[in-house]
Structure formats: C-alpha cells, structure tokens
C-alpha cells in the first residue's frame, strides 16, 4: 500500500524555555543584548552573532531584527548564514520585511524559503515585485514552486493565501492500527513536524471527513477510519474571504479548518495561529480607520509616506470644517451683535460631536461583530434617541446654568440648553444611522462615518444655537 | 499500573455540517426560523422546540437564544430540558446570560453546569451573586465543586479563570506504546473528549514537559516518554494576567499552554479558542475606549444604564469645551472688531484635533502592541513632528487661500496659515506625547488620551489664531 502521508509543515509550538530573557520589562529587546548583537554585526563577527542569536525562537529572532538599526538587518541575516530561520521574517511588520528582502540576494531568499511552511513562504513572497518573485520561484524545486505558485494565484485576503498546502491524508478503508503503524514506520523527514488530525479523502481527493489524533489513539486497532471519522467536519471554500474564515473559527471555537475547492477536493488546512493574526489585523484596521489613519500605517513608515497617507482624511475634514464655518458665516450679524454667541457656539458643536462619536463607535463595533442587523436596528435606534434625549437634557441644564452665570443673563442659558438638547438628539441619530447607511452601501463604516457624523453635529450645533439665539433675542 | 489519565473536557470541533442554514445572508438568525421557534416556545410545545433546536451547535444555540425576545429565553431553555447544552450560555453577551440565569432555578443551573468544561462553568458562575453561586456549587458533586471553587478563587482576568482544570498526564518512565495502549483500553467515558498533548509530570505533579499526540504516534513503541518529551515547553503562571497570556500565545503562535502554580505544579491548560475571545475583547475594549464608551457597553443594555455610563466621558469633554471657550472669551474684543475670526477659528481647532487624533491613534495602537517603547520613542516623536510640519504647511496654504478669497483680504489668509501650522505641530506633539505619558503613569491611554489631546488642539488653535490675528491686525 502506498504511503499516503503528505508532509505537513511545523507548528512552532516547541520553544526554548529561556527565550523570554531577551526582553526587558517593557517587552522591548533588552538594551544590552541588542547592543552586543549590533556590535557583533558591525564587526562582521559571524561566530559571535550565531552564538548570541542562534538558539532564538523565530518570533524572538523577528523581534530582534526589527529592533536593530535598518542598515544592520540584512547584514545580520547574512552573518547568520544557514542558521537563519526565514520564518522569523514573518514575525515583523511588512515594511521591515520588504526592506530586508530588497537587500538580500534572490538565491539566499530562495534557499531560505525552501524550508518554510507554505503559508509562511507565501507571506514572504506575496509582497515582492513580480520579477523577484519569479526569480525566487525559479530557484525552487518544481514541486515547491508549483505549490507556492498556486497559493499566490488565489486572491489577496482569501483562504487560499492563509492555508498550508501540506497535510496528512488517508483513505477511508484503512484501520486505526494501520494508520498508526505506517506513521511510526515512516521516515521522520517524510512526516509533518506537527499536526492534529488526519483527513480522510476519496481517490479523487475529495474530503470525506477527518479523524483527530486523540480519536485515532483511543480507537480499537481494527476500527476502520471511515467508522471513526467525523464526516460533518466544518470546511471553508478556498476563495472565501479571510474575515469570513475568521468568523467561522470564532463562532465555532475551531483550532483548524480544512480548505476545499469548488469540487470539494481538499487543498489545504488553515490553523488558528494564522487566524489570530487575522483577528488582530482586523481589529487594528478598525481602530486605525476610526482614528482616520490608513490600516497600512506602521511606526516604521517614513515621514513622507505618513504625511501623504494622512493627507486625504485631513482634507475631507477640512471641507467639513468649512461647511460648518459657513453656517457660522450665515449668522455673522448675530455674532457681531452678541459676541457671547461666538464664544459659546463651539461648546454646543463639540458636545454633540462627542456624544455622536460614542453612538457611532457602538454602531461600528456592532456592525463589525454582526450584532447589529435589520432584526434589531429599530430597537437600537430608539435606544440611542432616548439616550440622546436624556443626556441632552442633562448637559443642556448644566451648560445652561454655567453659561447664564458666566455671561450674567439667563436668556443665553435657556438658548444654549435648547440647542444642546437638539444637537445631542441629532448626534444620536447621525451616530446610529450613518454607519448603518454606509454599511448598506458596502462602504466601510469605520473609515467613513466620523466625517459625516461630525458634519451633522457641527452644522446642527451652530445652526440650532445661533438660530434659536437670533429668534429669542431678536437679532435678525 | 494506575491509570493516570485525567478526564479532559471537549473541544467543540466536531460540528453538524448544516448548522449554517439557520443564518440569513446578513449573519442574523433566519427570520422564519426564529419566528417558528418563538411560536413553539410561546405555545409551550417542548417536542417542537427540541425538534427545531435540538441538533444545533452550542454557538448557534447561543445566537438563537440571544435573538429571541427576552421573555422567551428562559422558557426556551426550560422547554429544551435535558437536551439543552449549557455551553450555549457562554456564547452570548453577559447581560443576556445574567438575565437568563436569574430566571432559571439554581438546581437547573447546577444540573447544566455539571456537564461543562471547567472553563465554561467558571464563565457561567463568575458573574452570579455569592448566594446563588454557593447554592449551585453546593448542588454539585464534591470533586467538581472543589475544582470550580478553586478556579473561582483566582483573581478576575487571570490565567486561572481561563484554564481548563482537566487534562491528560503521564509519568516520564512510561513508553509511547504503553501510553497508547492504555488510552486505547480505557473506557470512553474516562478519557477526555478531545486533547492535543499529554503532559509529563513527576510524582509531586510538577510539569516536566509534554508530548504532542503526533510525536507520540510516530515514536517507536519502546521510546520512553521522557526521551521524546519536549522539556522546555512554554508555560504560564496561574495568576498571570490574561492579556499577558494572550501576548505569549500570539508571539509564539501557540495552540495551547500549560498553567502552573508557584511550585511549578501543573494546574490547568489554556487553549487558543479561549484566547481568541480575550484578543477580541481587548480589541473591543480599545475601540470603545477611544470612542469614549465603556468597554462593558453592549447593544442589549438599557437606556438608563447606557445614559449613565456615557455621562462621565461627556462631562469631562464639557469641561474641556469650556476651557477652550474661555480662550475664545479672552479675545472677545478682537472677535467683536472682526467677526470673520469667530467664523474661522473653529476650522483651526478642528483641523488640529483631527491631525492629533491620527497621531494619537497610532500611538495608542503601538503602545497596546508593545511596538512603541523607550527604545524607539525619540525617533517616533521626531517623525510625528515632521509629519505635523509638512501637513501643517500644506493645510495652512490651502486654508489660507480659501479664507483670503472668502473674506476678500490676504491678511486673514496669512494669519490662519500660521495658526494652522502651529496647531498641527502642537497636535502632533500632544498626540504622540500624551498617550506615552499616561502609559508611564499606568493610566490606560486609550481611555484618557483624547480628552487631553483635543484640549491641547482647541486651546492652541484658538489662542494661536486669535493671538496672531490680534497682533497682525492691531486689534488689541
């Protein structure tokens, strides 16, 4: 019988126990250790570099490289030579990785990529320009090359880009004992470094089910795999978006999921450690989008890149600020007659903006986690309106009292209280409806909501305060 | 030889293949299905309820319960009877869970908790009041009770609260073959539902190492566990904060980690599925904190709770808005003489606030991920200042041109351009330094930065624009 175990790549689950010591209490690389490594690299002392960093876990190695001065990074890798684990390059932000890859000869990269898990190799290759990518693939053995090329052909952010393409399969008619014996008699190097389950496939490589290793271990030797396999194993399609894959993992607390093509053929496995990175990146993107920053922005970006990437968002905000100011401009006459209005108007706008941002944050989060849907939209909108009315009344009262005392007449207090109530209700409506509307039109609400929402609260804030004041005090 | 396999609880990795069909394309529970379940619950038709929901995965069951009207939820669980999997209660937000638990008799909860993984049982019990908790624990078998009580005695948010307290252990002198044979001959019910590794412990239960199941499977039958075990397995201390545990998982791409007490005795295992929830919750907390919302806030909160929980943040903002307005108040004379200043001043403040928020977002993110530390702080601060200067110059120019045309004289353009440049540099400084300063004093920068930062940009924006204008136009 043919050995049907594909070679699966490693889970880096086995770690040196003392690796934590390279960090200081802030979680940064320990300064003295960093200085020693940098000095060894500068001196070109390969033996010392290998002695200092040779035993590090790939994650620690990646953190160390990122902490080195940019001009020492590629030199460090060259000095490490064949001791360098290219998996470390997947453990840093992609700007640093791209800079390093640009400095390394393509043969070196090809040599390093050859030993990697397919998903790590894809991570390293996917951002390279087409020419370098082709040259590196050319230098790989045909089997590896074809496999990597296939992964790279899947769309960005798809399951196909995340999966490992090597895994263990067995036919359904094998017994548990056969499976265990064959694994035991197989050469170490023909077996994967680490795996949790074997997949049961038919002759056309269609996924029939899986057997977790613990199930295999406690099954009777004579039990057929098809009788102990789990045939309703949850699976994902190879072109599925990675966010959707992450949601499946989270909802069902999975540790791994098989990936199949349109014909239900098994083409790969995605493990939870890659999904953790996806979840982290999605959260990162959402925080940055809400703060008006590109999700690609990293601390290692240049001044020029950062300036340009932040410009568009600020430009949009400038336009909204001019729109808001033009509302102030409509009331120039009133402002001239009563300068207190100019002093107080920003308070109304700002308080409305902050209340609306609270509502918007909740809405954006709930849309991202799918907690907010058509089914509960009405209830949530009503809740926000009531919250707006209550906090609008509370802050109207407080602001009204302070303003009356400050400017010495009660009228201004009444006017600002009414404007505050109006603006907090408007903010609640804007904060809850705008993200949902954008989402309906497939526009990312985290990116675009806040410009619209603050325009609403600025315009309503100025217009209500100055409008009510103009009528109340007869300023027109 | 004594069987040394503890019973480990299940990973819910085996799933019905058709469970996805209860969702519509928005990811909400399919409305017709929901209506049918609700009708069956209202009619008290237990058989129909069980037929509709009996085969659901715990995650889908949790989603279904959360989608039901509040007054049907406990009734649904009572009708499901012994078919109800209490693990479903861990798959919904804690407000809903707490409301349901309050309605269920303590004996029912005790009965349901008995079958759960210890970590799920802790999740359900930890938020109950002391009296209910004691009554439920009392109703459990002594072994379960003692184990749960111990977990509940660990601090909130510690590794001890997350871990499962059941796992498989073996002595180091066993052979791989012995281990496999004993597992195979053991009664199904005395073996865990699912596990990835066996832990090697000494007679005092101190953790010596671990053997992953794939290693066990391919080892020679005669190999001693102590020879194939991985003795430098990364571990965490039982009182470690869960955020720190999550960082270890993420940094080293772990799937599980053993938990030890002060004496290095093995007391539990944390698996990645629980850590995914921690990562998600931490990200959620950061997004909400930046938006001025309590991390506890959920869509299911009441109007009154929401209003009160949002009030303090708005109150802080009101104070900062008054501070900013008092700066405007200092220039009342200038405003009176030139009303254009009142119209334009908010633009300078708003643009500075948005630029500062970008910087602050990057800083808060980088502090959370430990990318920003003392080692690179100076470089990052300088980068932000340069970005502030460049975007300040760009937006100074644009705003200056528009303002000159709008109000028909060049002077106002020059003044607003200078003020804009000043405020964007001030915003860059505030945005990058304030989060770091707060972090140094152990104050969560995500929660507190933005109030300070926008105060800086409002005050500097108004003061620079009106100050320069007063001097330039001789308004004093």
From TrEMBL, chains A, B:
It is a multi-pass membrane protein. Residues 229-286 form the CBS domain. This is Magnesium transporter MgtE. Keywords: CBS domain, Cell membrane, Magnesium, Membrane, Metal-binding, Transmembrane, Transmembrane helix, Transport. The gene is mgtE. Belongs to the SLC41A transporter family. Homodimer. Pfam families: CBS, MgtE, MgtE_N. It is found in: Cell membrane; Membrane. SMART domains: CBS, MgtE_N. Acts as a magnesium transporter.
